[in-house]
Automatic annotation (TrEMBL):
Keyword Ligase: no
Similarity comment: Belongs to the CAND family.
Single GO BP term: SCF complex assembly
Tagged with keyword S-adenosyl-L-methionine: no
Gene it is expressed from: CAND2
Name used for this protein in its record: Cullin-associated and neddylation-dissociated 2 (Putative)
Organism for this UniProt entry: Nothobranchius kadleci
Keywords, ordered alphabetically: Repeat, Ubl conjugation pathway
Biased composition (Polar residues): 51-62
PANTHER family attached to this UniProt entry: TIP120
Segments of this protein annotated with the region Disordered: 40-62
């Protein structure tokens, strides 16, 4: 009766428009409740499992019923072994071929969950299928990630070599999403036995293609967790070797190295604080626009510029933003501002980041900002006074409006710095804002006040 009450809301969740749709997380919560009921009534568990299998097999069943049944099978299997059932394996693999992404994802979670309490039965099956089913590889790797994440180091220990070998067989996959999943599995597996696996991960940097190196570096990112872990001291000793990939010839390897560095700076700044002297020159180098990475492509009668260096520049500026919060004492702020200044003239995404950085620096290092103020005002003014070409699409107007508002927030932060009025260029810009109704309106809106003058004494929202 209790089981029926739990699943009943889901059997009507696909009712006509106007009814409430259940949140996806509620499916996982109910699945855990069903697993708890099965554990509390082991004599009823076989019947429950059989009913869930039939629910998944029923092609006429609503999608919500099949998704819930799959998630329940995974949670029941996570808490108690379901045994090696050919029927169950077949049902899961068949669900992998569904046209519904929700059903495929639920099947992936289910297979991983069932393997947690039945490693010897299900893990070899998952590893075999990863190689045998290339079209289902991503889903099977997701199942493997579930296993690695949920199992203890001791239970994984007998299987380390077979998992490690399989992952490195697929670390050069052309599909980036699959490579990232391989990397996440490698990182989480390394956490299970860091003393043995971290040196092997480092060794892999010396072999393989750029794709393999990018997978290894991304794997390191997944070993940097936001809480103390046994791997921390080992990682501190060797993270410098992984960060040498910031000098890699391949631009994508450099990009993922920056992403990994950003993760370290955010989660465990102590890992990288002592390396800033050697890392920062490489980081700043990646903030520059490289004309050799900009190409023109023809789209019908139009020519369109494609900047292949944009993603790596964005990653570099994201690192700079993180360092402001975690490692300010290790930065030469004037040198840092040189690169912020260049970012103020870059692509939309980078300008949005540098406006935030500038506002933050106005609060953290006002003296340094005052020294660079005349050079910083011009790109801010250019953004605030820019006009969108007539006939542009709605999105262009929206992007320009957001740029102007973000730039004006940076201006408001600068105007709050004591003695800012001594800068002639800043004083002129403040007067221009006062005298222009459009800019004055934007300034007042970002201040969160109605009316009021523009000047250093004006209150501001620094959030």
């Amino acid at each position: 009766q209790l089981l029926k009450s739990l699943v009943e809301p889901f059997q009507s969740s696909e009712s006509p428009a106007g009814s409430s749709v259940l949140h996806r997380q509620s499916y996982h919560s109910v699945a855990r409740c069903v697993a708890a009921l099965s554990s509390a009534s082991p004599e009823d568990a076989p019947g429950t499992v059989s009913g869930l299998i039939q629910q998944v097999k029923g092609s006429g069943s609503p999608e919500s019923d099949r998704v819930l049944a799959l998630l329940c099978l995974g949670e029941v299997g996570r808490s108690s072994s379901l045994g090696r059932s050919k029927e169950l394996q077949g049902v899961i693999l068949e669900a992998f071929s569904s046209t519904s992404e929700e059903i495929k994802t639920a099947a992936s979670c289910a297979l991983g969950g069932m393997a947690v309490s039945s490693l010897n039965e299900y893990l070899p099956f998952i590893l075999k299928e990863v190689s045998a089913q290339p079209r289902k590889q991503y889903l099977l790797l997701h199942s493997l990630k579930e296993v690695i994440s949920a199992c203890s180091a001791s239970s994984l220990s007998p299987h380390l070599e077979s998992i490690w070998t399989l992952l490195f067989q697929h670390c050069e996959c052309q599909e980036e999403g699959t490579r990232n999943l391989v990397a996440e599995c490698l990182g989480k597996l390394t956490l299970a036995n860091p003393a043995q696996l971290l040196p092997r991960l480092r060794q892999q940097l010396k072999t393989g293609s750029p794709l393999a190196r990018s997978t290894v570096v991304t794997a390191v990112k997944f070993t940097i967790v936001d809480h103390p872990a046994p791997i921390d001291s080992l990682l501190k000793d060797c993270i410098g070797d992984f960060l040498k990939t910031l000098q890699d010839d391949d631009i994508d390897v450099r990009r993922v190295a920056l992403v990994m560095f950003n993760s370290a700076a955010h989660n465990k700044p102590a890992l990288i604080r002592g390396l800033l002297g050697t890392v920062l020159p490489q980081l700043y180098k990646e903030t520059r626009i490289r004309k050799d990475l900009i190409r023109e492509v023809e789209m019908g009668p139009f020519k369109h510029s494609v900047d292949d260096g944009l993603d790596v520049r964005k990653a570099a500026f994201e690192c700079m933003y993180t360092l402001l919060e975690s490692c300010l004492d290790g930065l030469d702020v004037l040198q840092f501002l040189d690169h912020v200044e260049e970012g103020l003239k870059d692509h939309y995404d980078i300008r949005m980041l540098t406006f935030l950085m500038l506002a933050r620096l106005a609060s953290l290092s006002p003296a340094a900002v005052l020294q660079r103020l005349d050079r910083l005002v011009e790109p801010l003014k250019a953004t605030c006074t820019a006009k969108v070409k007539a006939g542009s699409v709605k999105q262009e107007f929206e992007k320009q409006d957001e740029l102007r508002r973000s730039a004006m927030r940076a201006v408001a932060a600068l105007l709050a710095v004591p003695e800012v009025e001594r800068s002639p260029s800043m004083a002129d810009f403040a007067n221009q804002i006062r005298s222009n109704a459009d800019m004055a309106s934007i300034y007042q809106s970002v201040q969160g006040v109605e009316g009021g003058g523009v000047g250093p004494s004006e209150s501001m929202d620094k959030s």
